Amino acid sequence: MQEQIKNVNSLEELQSLYTSVFGKNGSMTLRLKEMSKMEPSARAELNKENAALREAFKIRQTELETAALNQKLKTEFVDVTLDIAPKNCGTIHPLTQTLLQIGTILESLGFEMWTGPEVEDDWHNFTALNTPSYHPARDMQDSFFLDNGNVLRTQTSAIQIRAMETHGVPIKMFGVGRTYRKEMDATHSPMFGQIEGLYVDKIDAHITMSDLVATIRTMLERFFEKKLEMRIRPSYFPFTEPSIEIDIKWGDKWLEIMGAGMVHPNVLRNCGVNPDEYQGFAFGFGWDRLAMLKFGLNDIRQFYDGDVRWLKNSGF
Ligand code: PHE
Fold first, then answer.
1. CA–CA separation, 35 and 19 (whole Å)
2. What is the pLDDT of residues 14-68, one digit of tens each?
3. 202 CA distance to ligand 1 middle (Å)
4. Angle of helix 209-224 versus helix 287-295 axis, rounded to 10
């Protein structure tokens, strides 16, 4: 029997042999049943034989299991030192890179990032921003209106209203997101990204136009990693008073970069803030525009073509 056990070559065979010996009608089971009738010496002999057989089964089982495991380890071997097949690896889109860079700069200046819905209601996109119903910005030529009177957000200023409404003042935030206008040429896309900063605090915190200009200069110079020549022109926005536009010198040209100003008292009032107690500044710009300058592009549409070859070869 011992020999037979040693010669078994599979766990299944071992199991059936085991059953034939120790099963209900197994040879050893039957012999053990007769034990009470045996002489003590024969009993001792049988006990010994019984124990030896069980041990032999156990040993063979371990051997067979180990062999099976080794076989598996051999066939299922994974060489973790092999080089991986070259993957078609993506990169971060230049617009996203730009947003991350500007976002990081603004956060380091204490501004908190906010987002908001791209489909806006009249209140957040226009009315609360002191944009009267006759204002040209509402013109069907400029804005994408929905049948229910909502509009595809034309400016991220809408996020500033939401931020003041829900967070209250003092507040130091910037809204980021996609905005939509009916315009399309090499430097305008009907969908573009805007960033708008807002800083409102108590009157005695003395937030002034010079804080505004210094904030913008710091942000732009850190983003472009160089000193910039800046020009400030008086301008008009319904939601700021006074309003300015900021140009930077790029090569031998002045480029219009952003709008800004001191938040109009009506805007504060519309958000439940008393303009006799609080004041602040706001600024807003298209970040695609800044990305074009930084990456040296002359057609904004390339950003949105989704042409992987262009993204790969432009070294972004
Ligand atoms: N929302 C303005 C725009 O879309 C930019 C702006 C923001 C101007 C904040 C002044 C203050 O052009």
1. 20
2. 999 999 999 999 999 999 999 889 999 999 999 999 999 999 999 999 999 999 9
3. 22
4. 40
Separation of CA 95 and ligand 1 centre (Å):
20
Amino acid at 136: P
CA atoms within 13 A on the CB side of 113: 14
Give the Cβ contact number of residue 267 at 10 Å.
Answer: 26
Cis-peptide, bond into residue 234, ω within 30° of zero: no
Return d(Cα 256, Cα 232) in angstroms, integer: 10
Which fold does the domain 94-312 belong to in CATH? BirA Bifunctional Protein; domain 2 (3.30.930)
Q: Are 301 and 165 in contact (CB under 8 A)?
A: no
Name the strand (E) or helix (H) holding 131: none
Q: Which helix (H) or strand (E) holds 227?
A: none
Residues with CB under 6 A from ligand 1: 155, 157, 196, 237, 240, 259-261, 282-284
Phi-psi region of 64 (alpha: psi -120 to 50; beta: other; left: phi over 0): alpha
The reported pLDDT for the residue numbered 53 is 94
Residue 140, helix vs strand vs coil: coil
Which pLDDT tens digit goes with each residue over 66-125? 999 999 988 888 888 888 877 777 788 999 999 999 999 999 999 999 999 999 999 999
Backbone angles phi, psi at 62, to 5 degrees: -60, -45
Residues of the chain above pLDDT 70, percent: 98
For the chain, the domains span: 2-75, 94-312
Phi, psi of 121 (to 5 degrees): -90, 165
Is the pLDDT confidence value at 141 over 80?
no
Question: Residue 153: its pLDDT value, please?
Answer: 96
Residue bearing tokens 């013109």 = 139
Instruction: Give the pLDDT of residue 8.
Output: 93
Nearest CA to ligand 1 atom 6: 284
Average pLDDT of 293-297?
90
What's the CA gap between 94 and 196, in Å, rounded? 19
177 is written with which tokens? 């997101």
